[in-house]
Amino acid sequence: MLICNFSILEKLPLNPNPLKAIVLNRKSADGLALTDVTLPDLASDEVKIQVRAAALNHRDEWCRQGLYANLRDGIILGSDAAGVVVEVGKGVDSNWKGREVIINPASDWGDNQEVQSKNFKIMGMPEHGTLAEFVHVKSNRIHPKPVHMNWNEAAALPLGGVTAYRALFRQGSIQSTDTVLVTGFGGGVAQFGVQFALNLGAKVFVSSSSSEKIQKALDLGCSGGFDYTEENWAEKAILATGGFDLILDSAMGDTLNNLIRVAKPAGRIVFYGATRGNPSGFDGRRVFWNQIKLIGSTMGNDEDFENMLDFVNKNKISPLIDQVFDLENSVKAFDRMKEGKQMGKIVVRIS
Asked: 6-157+320-349 and 161-296: same fold?
């Protein structure tokens, strides 16, 4: 059940324009509150966006569980969103008003395109995010909404899309001739990774514990899938493919040595997460002898975001949507994320 933060509501008569939002509230049973929030005055370099849809990422659920850094109760959660610009700051081109846009939720990457600065941050914590009726963002954080996408699809694109793009193209140096493995198919970044690699012309395989998700990957055009809960899945993968040129993974943990085993000599393994923690063992000999590259990756910089949008628009790629919830049922959306059974992105419809 959603819990309103009455300590905030009692002050609302002083605020003529409250907006509904989902905020972190670690004192509530759900860790969330649907409440009325006041945004600060619009800055001269900002725009005000009426949010049509927002999408969840794992970081939102980790915030709810208290597993993220710099947590602050009362902060609006959410990083992904699409909506309409309804107001512009004094220093912003007035032509943005009325336009349909998506938000690049990251900022302050820094000057080094290869690694983010210490000031790099993402909307949704520790600053206000997108799970709200309206949001203020700097005008250099917005881009035209892809015209081939509906609101739900557009909201689901930004964070997962740019993370997958950077991992594949900048960090993984993907080629159309590559044989690619995307692990944990079903999550937001993984489904983008599959679609991006397929559109480039690569031969793509997936791993998942779900036969339904593997079948979905086959329907998209993948060449095969492997159940990573089977002890001999690595042997099956080698037999079927001869190994992989590029592997995209977000789990790490004790699955790492199997990924090293199925990587071809000179293969690249790109990690954009470590949901299973650090590995308890490491097959270092195989790594150095086979010249395997282990590469870390995060959400991308502004150049990555723009290149991702160009690739998505050119190839008319649309995110897979798992389920859509309304704002009043956001707890159910978070619970769906926690279950980890989603096939694609979880979206919250705002207006």
From this structure: no
